[in-house]
Amino acid sequence: MEKENQITADKIFELYGEYILNHGERPKNIYLFAKDNDFEEKDFYDYFTSFEQIEKSMLVNLFEKSVALASEVNISGKITSKEKLLNVYFIFFENMTMNRSLVLMILGNDKLHAAKISDQLKETHRNFIKTLDFNDWSIIKEAKDDVKNFHDKAREEAFWLHLVSAIEFWKKDTSPSFEKTDIFIEKTIDTGFELMDNEPLRKVVDLGKFLFKEKFRKS
User: Fold this and answer.
1) Which pairs with CB-CB distance under 8 Å and at least 24 residues apart come from 83-92?
2) Model-level pTM?
3) Of 21, 56, 151, 205, whose CB is crowded by the most CB atoms within 10 A?
């Protein structure tokens, strides 16, 4: 006799998320998790090998959904790399905010743990950055030597470190609707592109003022 509710990856996401939100910790083991939710332990392994893998996949899932949704918005052929990046980030952080309690529990307060849980997200993020066309930067059009030598891997790592810093900012943000996180994302991305476009001074000063105020507001 067939099961009425066939277990799927999405169903496991849902059940696992509900468990850790309600209990404040991971289930004791996979056997009990499966038993409590009326499916076989072996069905769990069709999709995941551990609870940690579920948590990693949750973050990847949120990012991939954000990229997919942004692609529906980015229909104009004239949209720049910066605009594409901002669209994805704004949607991603909106998705994380919709699942804030869960995301905060998954990432925890330990940065080493957060880095471990985010390693699959890093690869997914790297693949997304590779899809962006940075040839629309005016500095590249001017064939500056320093930009020609700016290797792809270094650029991908820089963008990843920026995303990590934005997530850390979002975790601590107490502003209504996390509006300061949106400001942080826009200012830092804008600054990064302006630096590469060789017009840094005004943007750096503007960013510095914002970060300075935030630092002393929280101290």
Assistant:
1) 84/132, 85/132, 85/159, 85/189, 86/185, 86/186, 86/189, 88/128, 89/163, 89/166, 89/185, 89/189, 90/182, 90/185, 91/66, 92/62, 92/63, 92/66
2) 0.80
3) 56
Contact 198, 139 (CB under 8 A): yes
